[in-house]
TrEMBL record:
EC annotation from Swiss-Prot or TrEMBL: 3.2.2.-
EC class: hydrolase
Keywords attached to this entry: DNA damage, DNA repair, Glycosidase, Hydrolase
Protein name: Putative 3-methyladenine DNA glycosylase
UniProt key word Transferase: no
Length: 203
DNA sequence: CGAATGATATGCT
DNA sequence: GCATATCATTCGC
């Protein structure tokens, strides 16, 4: 994956990450997942971003150079993974919301549960990380230098298949058109409006 | 130092 | 559809 591509604002990078492949190697084995759904978080200008209130120990990675992984824990039990984008010093990241397992499906299913159907293995941010094997240990990992977690180009996605919509699950600025996904793909999480969603201004 | 909150997923009503 | 699990981070006092 080219770092120049990632060095643009999150909302530009997010649609271009569709189809790219995340690889995670652990002692258990290797899982590769093709990204089918992303969400852009525009740093300090975005009320829904963790970086909205400025730099903190947790979100520091988002302020760093593009091509690193920002992992955080949600609701005490799920891990969520972001690809850091934009320029060094400016908070910007793309949340990976869903994907399709292309290698290591057995291992992914072992982690997620035997009864989980293939399209659901990596559907939703928490499930995606669980299937891939991402944990807090991977926070800050460089995705471009051949570490245990890697981001690589996948099969090109036709622009006509890309859809844009409002973000999922956020309590603020949910109506920003910052969620990108592949039309009709069964691995894309169903759209749900946040229970706390309120109208807001913005792009 | 205590309290509230959250970019979720699942299971039961 | 709604409640609930469960904890690190953040913010208020």
């Amino acid at each position: 994956m080219n770092v120049d591509l990632l060095s643009r604002p999150a909302e530009e990078v997010a649609p271009r990450l569709l189809g790219s492949v995340l690889t995670c190697e652990t002692s258990e084995g290797t899982v590769r997942i093709a990204v089918t759904e992303t969400e852009a978080y525009a740093g300090t200008a975005d009320p829904a971003s963790h970086a909205y209130r400025g730099r903190t120990p947790r979100n520091a990675v988002m302020f760093g150079p593009a091509g690193h992984l920002y992992v955080y824990r949600s609701h005490g039990l799920h891990w969520c993974a972001n690809v850091v984008t934009g320029q060094d010093g400016i908070a910007s990241a793309v949340l990976i919301r869903a994907g399709r397992v292309v290698e290591g499906e057995d291992l992914a299913r072992e982690r997620r549960g035997e009864r989980v159907e293939s399209p659901r293995l990596a559907r939703g941010p928490g499930n995606f990380c669980q299937a891939l094997g991402i944990t807090g240990e991977h926070n800050g990992a460089n995705l471009l230098t051949g570490g245990p977690v890697m981001l690589s180009e996948g099969e090109p996605v036709p622009a006509a298949h890309i859809r844009v919509g409002p973000r999922v699950g956020v309590s603020k600025a949910h109506d920003w058109q910052h969620r990108f996904y592949l039309a009709g793909d069964p691995t894309v999480s169903a759209y749900r409006l946040s229970p706390r969603a309120k109208p807001s201004a913005g792009a």
